Amino acid sequence: MTATALPRLCVVIPCFNEAANVAPMVARLDATLAGIAWEAIFVDDDSPDGTSVAVRAIAVQDSRIRCLKRIGRRGLASACIEGMLATSAPYLAVIDGDLQHDETLLPRMLEALEGGLAEIVIGSRNIEGGDKQGGLTAARQMISDTGAALANAALPMRVSDPMSGFFALPRDLLEEIAPRLTGTGFKILLDILLSAKRPLRSLEIPYSFRARVAGESKLDAAVLLEFAGLLADKALGGVVPLRFLSFAAVGAIGLLVHLAVLGLLHGLGGVGFNAAQWSATLIAMTVNFLLNNRITYRDRRLRGPALLRGLVLFYLVCGLGAAANIGIANLLLRDGVLAWGLAGAAGAALTVVWNYAVSATLVWRAK
Ligand SMILES: Nc1nc2c(ncn2[C@@H]2O[C@H](COP(=O)(O)OP(=O)(O)O)[C@@H](O)[C@H]2O)c(=O)[nH]1
Ligand SMILES: [Mg+2]
User: Fold this and answer.
1) What pLDDT is recorded for position 298?
2) 133-163, pLDDT tens digit by residue?
3) Which of 1, 272, 283, 318 has the fewest CB atoms below 10 angstroms from its CB?
4) Pairing mode, if any, of strands 167-170 and 91-94?
5) Between vectors from CA 324 to CA 322 and to CA 330, what angle results, nearest 5°?
6) What was the pLDDT predicted at 58?
7) Ligand 1 pocket: which residues have CB below 6 Å?
8) What's the rounded mean pLDDT across residues 310-323?
9) What atom in ligand 1 is closest to the CA of residue 97?
10) Quick one: which of 107, 163, 158, 157 has its CA closest to 132?
11) Ligand located closest to 97 CA
12) pTM of the model
């Protein structure tokens, strides 16, 4: 067997339920990258529509096409990172697998990197010549604009489209930054720019975001929350786990729900305090569970029978947590260690940590 030369460019294509877009994507890459040694890695999170089957059907005849299939995992950012780390090509590009990005930019991106014009080249919808209207609804556009403004406040350099999912960089640079990446959520480019520890020399090339033809978008309002989480994580130097922040924020919402229900039932409705307290606790725990399931653990989201099982477990975990909260607060108070306010706060803080640690391992265990 003879060895073949290493490709210059590896195109990393995150995809989830994009089976219908795989063959057209390969055909477009083949056309636009003629004359360049390239390979493509489709990173598929075990899509139910058989995306990986579609990739492998092409891969058996074309060794430039590879499939990185992850089981029991979800996440755009981590898919991109793992794809980028799975190649030895000197230059990397990331592009969506839904044909919304303009792949004809790739040769220019590679040229700019090879020519040393920039350390990172970004496909941008927000500069002159770019068109952001094409594939975005008004609401998505607003999220994107708000995000870009917030991101620029946190970044050491100006980037007009820091939320872009279409960019290219040398592998060396990615490997240098990789250990510091947060790797959760959707904003892989922003993660890279924030983790670089120095302003990267960037070049933005305008393009028009195309409308989706096949498949559907996986982004929703939770993305903005996730984005806030990414900024918080970077601001805190990655010491406090993001999930914990999200869990604690959901807990704070639960507390408000609890007080509101208690006020409604006991204060306004004249329901006895104990009954009102029990109802408020149950409702707040249920709201907490559903929010955590949707936001904090969206990548391990429970559905169907598992959702019910999880809810019951969550009641148990929180019930124990509440008992411990009262016990600890009483102890601290009895021994005169702390004043009642501080004793209560210490009890509550321990409860959040307990609830977080135990529900992460029992209710939403990683598969
Ligand atoms: N591997 C992987 N790919 C994903 C995941 N979520 C989204 N994608 C892919 O990331 C790209 C961008 O996602 P999309 O939903 O189109 O985002 P939008 O274009 O901003 O609406 C698409 O190619 C998706 O198939 C995921 O959890 N895992
Ligand atoms: Mg898309």
Assistant:
1) 84
2) 555 677 777 777 777 888 888 888 889 888 8
3) 1
4) antiparallel
5) 105
6) 98
7) 14-16, 18, 43-45, 74-76, 79, 96-98, 100, 165, 217-219
8) 87
9) 23
10) 163
11) 1
12) 0.74
Angle between helices 19-32 and 51-59 (to 10 degrees): 40
Q: Which of 32, 1, 3 is nearest to 11 (CA)?
A: 32
84: burial class by Cβ within 10 Å (0-12, 13-18, 19+)? buried
Q: Give the number of the ligand closest to the Cα of residue 55.
A: 1
Give the length of the chain: 367
- The Cα–Cα gap between 35 and 106 comes to 12
Q: Are 321 and 360 in contact (CB under 8 A)?
A: no
β-pair partners for 204: 122
What are residue 167's phi and psi, to 5 degrees?
Answer: -160, 170
Residues flanking ion ligand 2, Cβ below 5 Å: 98, 100
Is domain 9-235 annotated with CATH 3.90.550.10? yes
Does position 73 have pLDDT exceeding 60, yes or no? yes
Domain ranges of the chain: 9-235, 242-362
